[in-house]
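Input record (one chain):
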Amino acid sequence: MPGGRLNHQERRTIAEGLAEGLAYGEIARGLDRPTSTVTREINRNGGPAGYRADQAHRATERRARRRRTAPAQAPPVETDAHGRDRGTVHDFEEQFTALLVQTGLPKTAARVLGCLYAADTGSRTAAELVQRLQVSPATISLAVHYLEEQELIRRERDPGKRHQRYVIDDDVWFRAMLASANANALLAEAAHQGARTLGATTPAGMRLAEMGRFLTHVGQDLVTSAEHWREAFSAGVASGAADHLR
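The corresponding structure, as predicted from the sequence alone:
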């Protein structure tokens, strides 16, 4: 572990970061520690909702005393169905979630999206999300409603079952780009209207007109690029997969 074991003050800093709603990656950067170190520390000591610095420190000291008196042996690595280290998968999920938060997604919505992306199926039920993220069903409901509004996920019903699954499909980022372009178009139109209202030759009018032109061009370029790469990836998905296997 880089820098040795966590000390008592670092554990208090972790607890304060969790109380402030910081992502694991942010807490780790503040401590100059790997995200995996902070992730293991929290998961080992009650999870994000139950982590207590003093209790975690005492528990670590007890484990250290037991290790000194017990024969040393390497702990078994817990793997998933594909042979991947579950801890490594979880670390990626936390890091990816932290990046999604930095893009502006609410924290719980980012956790749901990160959880879906880390799933090989690209989907989970509400109950699975509740269990994995350790939050209430109401919290999951609000998060998935937000993500559906942003067209980042969709829902589908399991055949022969009552519950629904939340799914990421192949077009999710294409639709997200179109939603962003539509938002730019609305802002551009508002800016042009403002320029006309305030006067095209006034400083405020010229500023708004320039904003409108910029957003119009950016939105058009975004749609053109999204459509181009959607078609390119759709056409090349089979050959790309074959090249990867070779």
